[in-house]
């Protein structure tokens, strides 16, 4: 069970943006800083395990509040004068980082405030987002997000909300934030794909898996695509009996790896691509310096799932168990993504967590146009291209709290897990084989710090109170 409020004593060495640094001396926020908040929906209690899922979101709450805070405009949205507090990721900046767009020599910093960066423009067929409860403003919020960044507008033809049981679920503002993040960032990475939001009746695994069935059938009917699941829960002994929910011809499944040490299901399922977290280090001008490990990303060797054949190449790392995550993308809330959501945020939020990585990767794979017949085929492609530097970004090493990254060097060679090759344009985030501080083998993202990116500490305070309570006195 996660504590409701704590100040982490475990510091991960990283370069953070000005908008994420807290004063270590007296505990007060830097004038342009903020706090990292954990929504109630992302807190797991002991009686939830094996029964109820949680989200994997964290929110950067800026000093002075979030009223009248807007991202830079790439379209018809409201324009602001960006400063150090506004180097948070946009569709164009992440598209640049992951080379989903053409990037000139003048744009290699992938600066979120650079108006010349292009938005991703790919995508086809369908991506289904599975979340719990109703999100009543989903369509209008996606419209606002798309207008702000100059993305294709959602229509009744390319965006559908589906109630998994055929009955309107009750609304839940915390889960609406998860759904907003998921639909907006899947759309951002693959704007030509049809987006389905499948609303489960509740966040019980039974209801969510019912929604997964609906999502699978819709994606298959659309000719193939991806199902994104940014939720999960601590592993449980009978989880393997439910892995069959993630097998449907023409459908590739993604799940968030979690936002704390250890593993969660369904991320550990061998039929799912597990998405972990990285952090984008930017200089004082907002230019990308390095892709770093995010200190709170989940990962490790599963307690109950056996190692699938596609992980044979890293058997010396994971042993006989399934290792997670397989891939990674930006998840650090301190370098988070913009999300527009009315029920929870009353407007714009800056959001992180591996809940970002799952829809981002769903969009990346969709935009690549490969459309594998299953997750296992996609994962076999990933692992069979192990070590091809032209196909992935090697996140090489790092110091990340309890998940201390170390090289395992058989024959002097590390074991990175690549992004899906070629069609992803070669600069996607990835993973190395590492181990816990106690020596237990576990693969998870890590970093090589460039000299100019070293130094600085990130202190995060996690607060379970919903953001609406923080905004309204």
Short précis:
About 20% of the residues lie in helices and about 20% in strands. It has 8 helices and 20 strands. Helix 2 crosses helix 3 and helix 3 packs parallel to helix 6.
Care to describe what's here?
This protein has 473 residues and is α/β, with parallel strands linked by helices. It has a single domain (5-78, 90-471), classed as 3-Layer(aba) Sandwich (Rossmann fold). Helices cover 18% and strands 21% of the residues. The protein has eight helices and 20 strands. It has helices at 91-97, 138-149, 173-189, 205-221, 315-318, 354-368, 375-384, 467-471; strands at residues 5-7, 34-37, 58-62, 126-132, 159-163, 194-200, 225-229, 233-234, 251-256, 264-265, 273-282, 288-293, 300-306, 321-324, 327-330, 337-341, 347-352, 432-435, 441-444, 461-463. The strands form six sheets. Strands 4, 5, 6, 7, 9, 11, 12 and 15 form an eight-stranded mixed sheet that branches. It has a four-stranded antiparallel sheet with strand order 2-3-17-16. Strands 1-20 form a two-stranded antiparallel sheet. α2 packs across α3 and α3 runs parallel beside α6. The radius of gyration is 20 Å and the shape is globular. Mean pLDDT is 78; it is low at 1-31, 79-85 and 399-473.
